């Protein structure tokens, strides 16, 4: 498996594109610049199988509908944030962007609990890692020693908890119980900034 980090939009939110040798792909958190992301995927001759969302803050969902409509691929999100996609107040875009609220169509697949998630040849373990937001999840690929943590954990930092639904103690618990228990060699591919290598 190959993975590529693509910082998108004014907040430089990391979208991650995972691909196998068949040129099938998984897109994690396509946050912005939908047309440019679609063009890049086409230039790479990739065939997205699914969009996985670590959470539904506006800077992580802005290109969801562009990618989904072009490649006809389903979206996965945790149940606690499934209605955030269609609601600019809940996903924060109304608060930060005013009338230019960012929304997306509802997700096709709702994650209701932790465990295995298999899409094509891609095998993930889903961890519930709330605290930054109530429905935050992390996607771990044990075979490749990498976890896509969204905004829960960054290199030498943690996610903010002052947004609606955030909870500092809950985030620390998520990090200590779910992410810090992963093997030492695990790469943390986070929502902003550089991965821990």
Can you walk me through this structure?
The structure is a single chain. The chain contains 5 helices and 13 strands. The chain has one domain: 4-Layer Sandwich (Metallo-beta-lactamase, Chain A), CATH 3.60.15. The longest helix has 12 residues, at about 170-180. The protein is an alpha/beta fold and about 200 residues long. α1 crosses α2. Its cofactor is Zn(2+). It comes from Halalkalibacter akibai (strain ATCC 43226 / DSM 21942 / CIP 109018 / JCM 9157 / 1139). One of its GO terms (molecular function) is hydrolase activity. Keywords: Hydrolase, Metal-binding, Zinc. This is Hydroxyacylglutathione hydrolase.
CATH topology descriptor? Metallo-beta-lactamase, Chain A
From the helix content, strand content and strand pairing, which structural class follows?
Answer: alpha/beta
Distance between the termini: 17 Å
- Percentage of residues in DSSP E strands: 25-35%
Number of domains: 1
- Fraction of residues in helix: 10-25%
Average pLDDT figure: 95
Q: In the CATH hierarchy, what is the architecture at level 2?
A: 4-Layer Sandwich
Number of strands: 13
Annotation field: number of helices: 5
Q: Which CATH class applies here?
A: Alpha Beta
User: Which stretches are low in confidence, meaning pLDDT under 50 for 5 or more residues running?
Assistant: none
Strand neighbour order, sheet with most strands: 1-2-3-4-5-6
């Amino acid at each position: 498996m190959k993975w590529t980090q693509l910082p998108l939009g004014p907040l430089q939110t990391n979208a991650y594109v995972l691909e196998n040798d068949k040129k099938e792909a998984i897109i994690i958190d396509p946050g912005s610049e939908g047309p440019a992301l679609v063009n890049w995927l086409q230039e790479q001759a990739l065939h997205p199988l699914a969009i996985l969302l670590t959470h539904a803050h506006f800077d992580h969902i802005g290109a969801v509908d562009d990618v989904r409509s072009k490649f006809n691929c389903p979206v996965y999100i945790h149940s606690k944030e499934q209605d955030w996609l269609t609601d600019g107040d809940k996903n924060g875009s109304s608060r930060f962007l005013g009338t230019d609220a960012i929304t997306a169509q509802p997700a096709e697949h709702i994650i209701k609990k932790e465990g295995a998630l298999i899409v094509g040849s891609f095998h993930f373990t889903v961890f519930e890692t709330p605290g930054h937001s109530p429905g935050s999840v992390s996607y771990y690929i044990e075979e490749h020693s990498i976890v896509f943590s969204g905004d829960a954990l960054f290199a030498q930092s943690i996610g903010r908890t002052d947004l609606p639904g955030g909870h500092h103690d809950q985030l620390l618990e998520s990090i200590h119980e779910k992410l810090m228990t992963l093997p030492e060699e695990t790469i943390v591919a986070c929502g902003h900034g550089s991965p821990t290598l």
